[in-house]
Amino acid sequence: MRTVVITGGTDGLGKGLALHHLRQGARVLAVGSTPAKGEALLAEAAALSALDRVTFLRADLTSVAAAEELVTMIKGTCPSVDQLVLCAQRYRLFGPRTVTPEGFEHSFALAYLSRYVLSHGLREVLESAPRPVAMNVGTPGVTLGRIHWEDPQLTRRYSGTKATLQSFRANDLLGVAFAARRRPCLRNVTVRPLREPHTGAKQTFIRATSPSVTSD
Description:
Blueprint: E1 3-7, H1 12-23, E2 27-32, H2 35-47, E3 54-58, H3 64-77, E4 83-86, H4 106-121, H5 123-127, E5 133-137, H6 160-181, E6 187-195, E7 202-208
Parallel strand pairs: 1-2, 1-4, 2-3, 4-5, 5-6
Antiparallel strand pairs: 6-7
Helix pairs in contact: 3-4, 4-6
């Protein structure tokens, strides 16, 4: 039985993917921060007669420590992971700068650091699967914004848009670096979910994050 780990797996695209994989017969570990949404996912899994194959894992992925604990828990219970889907995201385009208890700017912590910790932390169990995939759901290839190397936590001249765009660019680099260090068996892709302007239907575009991925 395939094992799929999905962050942001109790809402939006992540929840849709969780239900899709359950219908396909996989075991799903859905990570989310809201218990009510986790219970709702479990109820829908029960309606699919798949309650025995889904686990809701509550975690606040703005915390590096929580992400590391999640890695330890997954490695302790899953000898292999066939697919890692990184969906957790919460855009904060407006309002003041928010800092996590660990001192990281919110978007940097959730949209980038959690994905770094999980992708590299779960590499060993991913590479134990026969055809593993690490899927980073984001906005690849955006040319707007930049990484503020001189002030990555945006302590000066913060804006929500600037923080969000920085997370997009950081994830581009994460994908390239991860692909460069992976074993040939581990495929690494970044996907961009979009909506049709007239119908609202979701489409998913897959973008290779390095030349080596295009050969997979």
